[in-house]
Specification:
Blueprint: E1 3-11, E2 22-27, E3 30-34, E4 45-48, E5 53-56, E6 58-63, H1 76-85, E7 88-93, H2 104-117, E8 121-127, H3 140-145, E9 150-152, H4 161-173, E10 178-181, E11 195-196, H5 199-204, E12 208-209, H6 211-228, E13 235-238, H7 243-255, E14 259-264, H8 291-303, E15 308-310, H9 318-321, H10 338-349, H11 353-357, H12 362-368, E16 383-387, E17 392-393, E18 412-413, E19 416-422, E20 425-429
Parallel strand pairs: 1-4, 1-5, 6-7, 7-8, 8-9, 9-10, 10-13, 11-12, 13-14, 14-15
Antiparallel strand pairs: 1-2, 2-3, 5-16, 16-19, 17-18, 19-20
Length: about 425
């Protein structure tokens, strides 16, 4: 048996953080006691939190094991080692790498390789259409049987609305959730424009993606769901970026549509002008927008309109990032410091850190279809111990893996992770 004692920690609940210290007892893969030692417990491993916080592990619902189009297995170990170093115990993997997750055998291979590493739990997101080409539907039922928890086009837009409608109908018939980006293909200029339309992009001479690219896609999606009535599938809208999108999501939820949504954590901290003079580290899809959009996104995360905050972790080779903005590949690393960026939001907005963390814990678990994590005997012991007051500097030498594409390089960030447990096993610890 595996007995782990975590001493002197403050419990982070869904809405608040305890002020008093507690001890947490873990036996095998479950919590065996909170504040009270279970009978017969003899600690084999002791972690002294020294007044730090303990939370259930974070779930990141947008992670890539490679750069888009790159080979999926090249950096799996690096990404998952980065995940546990950041307290992320559940990782949802997007389908847009090579090979694209549109065959059952590929899903089996992905899960077997990730299981062999024994790090974070991995949840494959299957392709909605074959090859992500937006034409023929992928065999979703078979993919689900082999482990896919949802179906998505990642950043690839389905141009044909009839194909989208059929995909929603097919998914609904098997009660399968669909995860979709809200971006009209033509207004979004395909997949090649990563600056927000507006005065700043115009001054730099960059083509821009208007907010309308997002809102038109949302109008279309919601109208399709309304037409399906009670037969509509669960839909998760991925990585919204604008205040107007927040309004539409809020209205859809109030109407009773079965929708949830997420936002890239970078959009909670950065705005379009942070790009400066063509810094490609600030190139994202969807693009960074205005300070008013950022404020609306933050408020929506804290009031629950935006369900989940994700890292959208994308490793980009230096030769693909160190290009002019119009040619550079979009994306940034983020899974390793997702918890730090959420704590930073809590600090700046002056809310309890549990409120910010719920967007990557309880609410993210719900979207994944996992049980609500509760501090009670029998709960799964996927845990992170972190010192919210311990600031640290993000340098290239602390990044797990061979990439360093992040706009936060050299930034001072809060919340240092001291230990991570996955299924009761200590998979990361600061010695």
């Amino acid at each position: 048996m595996n007995h782990v004692l975590i001493k002197n920690v403050r419990l982070v609940h869904a809405s608040h953080t305890d002020k008093k210290f507690s001890d947490v007892y873990v036996v095998d893969d479950k919590i065996a006691g909170v504040g009270q030692q279970p009978e017969g417990f003899v600690a084999q491993t002791v972690i002294d939190g020294a007044g730090a916080c303990i939370s259930f592990g974070l779930a990141d619902l947008a992670t890539r094991f490679s750069a888009k189009g790159g080979h999926r297995y090249n950096v799996m170990a690096d990404v998952l080692n980065g995940a546990v170093a950041g307290g992320v115990t559940h990782v949802a993997v997007l389908p847009d790498a090579s090979p694209i997750l549109d065959e059952s055998s590929l899903v089996t291979l992905l899960t077997s390789r990730s299981d062999a590493l024994g790090l974070s739990h991995v949840y494959p997101i299957g392709a909605l259409t074959q090859g992500l080409e937006g034409e023929l539907l992928a065999p979703m039922a078979s993919l689900a049987q082999h482990g896919c928890v949802a179906f998505s086009q990642a950043d690839v837009t389905i141009q044909n609305t009839q194909v989208l409608q059929r995909a929603l109908q097919y998914a609904a018939s098997f009660n399968l959730p669909v995860w979709l980006r809200a971006q009209d293909y033509y207004l979004g200029q395909g997949e090649d424009a990563y600056a927000a339309s507006g005065a700043y992009a115009s001054r730099l001479g960059l083509s821009g993606v208007a907010v309308a690219a997002e809102t038109v896609a949302l109008y279309t999606l919601f109208e399709l769901l309304r037409g399906m009535g009670n037969a509509a599938p669960r839909v998760h809208v991925c990585r919204i970026s604008s205040a107007r999108a927040v309004d539409l999501i809020r209205t859809a939820k109030a109407e009773g549509l079965n929708v949830s949504c997420d936002v890239n954590v970078h959009h909670l901290h950065l705005v379009d002008t942070d790009m400066g003079y063509f810094d490609s580290q600030f190139v994202f899809n969807p693009p960074l927008r205005t300070s008013s959009d950022r404020a609306a996104l933050r408020a929506a995360v804290l009031d629950g309109t935006i369900d989940v905050v994700v890292s959208d972790h994308t490793a980009v080779d230096a030769d693909a990032k160190d290009l002019p903005v119009g040619l550079a590949q979009a994306g940034a690393l983020g899974v390793q410091w997702l918890i730090s960026l959420l704590v930073k939001v809590a600090r700046e907005e002056r809310v309890d850190l549990a409120v910010a963390l719920s967007s990557a814990v309880s609410r993210a678990y719900r979207v994944l279809g996992l049980p609500e994590p509760l501090w009670q005997v029998g709960a799964h012991a996927d845990l992170v111990v972190f010192d919210e007051a311990a600031d640290w500097t993000l340098t290239s030498d602390v990044i797990r893996g061979g990439h360093s594409n992040t706009p936060f390089l050299a930034y001072e960030l809060p919340a240092s992770v001291t230990a991570t447990l996955v299924s009761g096993r200590v998979v990361y610890a600061v010695v």
